[in-house]
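User: I'm new to structure prediction. If I give you an amino acid sequence, what do you actually give back? Let's try with this one:
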Amino acid sequence: MAGIYLILLLYFLIWHGLFLLFNYKHWPDPLWKEFVDVCYHGLKLDSVVSAYMLPIPFISLLLIYILPRRGIDLFLRVYYAIIGILLAIIFTSDLLLYGYWHFRLDSTPLFYLQHPTGAIDSVNAWMIIGAALGMAVAAALLIRILWGWHRRFLPEQPKHRRYTFIYTPGYFLMAGLIFVLIRGGLSVATANVGMVYHSEKQFLNHAAINPAFSLVYSLKTERDFTKGYLFFDEKTLAQNYDFLAQQASADTDPNKTEKVLTHNRPHVILLLLESFSANPIGALGNSLGLTPHIDSLVNEGLLFEQTYANSFRTDRGMASILSAFPAQPKTSIIKYPAKCQSLPSIARSLSANGYTTHMLYGGDINFAGMHSYLTATGYRRIVDLSSFDAIHRLSKWGVPDEITLEYLAKDYLEQCRQSNKPVFYTMLTLSSHEPFDVPTKRNENPYLNSIAYTDEALGHFVSQLKRSSEWENTLLILIGDHGYPYPEDKATPDRPEKYRILHLWAGGALEKKGRLSTICSQTDVAATLLSQMGFDHSDMPYSKNILSAQVEPYAFFSVPNLFGFVDKEGITTWDCDSKQTLFNEGTHEERRILLGKAYLQNLLMDVSKR
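Assistant: Good question. You get back a string of structure tokens that encode the predicted 3D arrangement of the chain. For your 610 residues, that looks like this:
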């Protein structure tokens, strides 16, 4: 097994080199160091793909004790031929297509194979001949090497089978090792394309991707995004969506935007708080006293009382907040690295205007494709649990909030002192995620107990910042990444209580204090923040500046099979399968359903095109 595994790793290493050589126009300087980094980080997915090839030979190794050797040899010979041919086709096609598409091979070419004439017409004859020769050579070499290894090292059929049981522990160990390699390790995150992203240069991230993995991964996650959501024809959709589109571009007059900052170039800390629903927060109506530190911060900050999450998972909330891109009901755009490249983002906008950009997460940053998304959208420095000592990895998800927030305070202040540029620092917390394993006990309910724990950690964090001179130049934004079903009888998927979240601005750079009852979506954070700084947000068509008097606010959210729409007249949730209203409060229900359908269809058509 080890021989096949190592042969395939070497095969993929050669392809990394060929990819860099073939795309020499994108070479960075110095190339040698970058080549080593590409191979090192690419090893993660190369290892996974190599491991996927092992179960069949492993089973054959077991069957050698009960089946004729000749039959096993024939079977494996065919298997090696299939592997060699498929890998040669995948890697050669990827090598040719990257120059046109600038992303590694995924399921996209399969669409064009439905119209082979058009696909062939777009390439010249020499390219076809060269590709065919390349595939033939690559396939022949791999098949020959694998078969040569097989003939030399596969054990002969034993003559005395009664002693074969002594090998059983070794086989169990080998099976377990293969499983771990296929999974991509023992961490919470399973293998995904984003785990090889390592550079701010997108080409180097692409060079580290194994295209065989990329293709299979995209096939596994690919969907007909608009299936079941085509409510209108093109003309009717445009008419119904027109009002929504106008709100994102309505703040054309800066004099009609309420200014809430002391100046327009503060340092910014954006805290994405795991599962921070509005329901446990004292300042938003909870009487259990779970969040005294947040409640205290509310008294000196600006609380957005009617903010709604876009969906129900972190990856969707992250894209909604950081890229102002709404969540989709049955998928997450973060899982599609090629699509993420086209997303706008707060980080990219601030970076273009002189900010340094940092991301901190106490867990595995590769989870759900977050690493590739963050790298593609402008974060130049990313810190995750790998930067912390093992002694600090005290929870299932990684490093508890108490430790990461302490790290954030120290690192943020150091970045402010060292850099002559303003700082944009984002952090995602994790302690209030199931299973809520926190080191303190303040409430019998595990979720509420974790909220209280993170609140206390936030209190210490804010105290550290306030003791520094940087506090007066800091804008601190706290926002939940999504809601949580608490209380269970009210915060159900069809009711607004499930989606209402904490959203608070604070810090010495905040001039306006108080509470704002304007309806707000996670996607509105970007335009509202950038407008306060005087930066353009026209590349964010789903984001509204809710501090502008020109904007009529609304919020949209979706989870599998349903969507909700909130406006000044009320709130409605609608089931896309049963095609009926699940919850309604207020007047003009039909208008909200119409706008919600238009919003969702337009969004999914947008996702399909990216």
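You can read the tokens as a compact description of the fold. Here is one thing that stands out. The chain has a mean pLDDT of 90.
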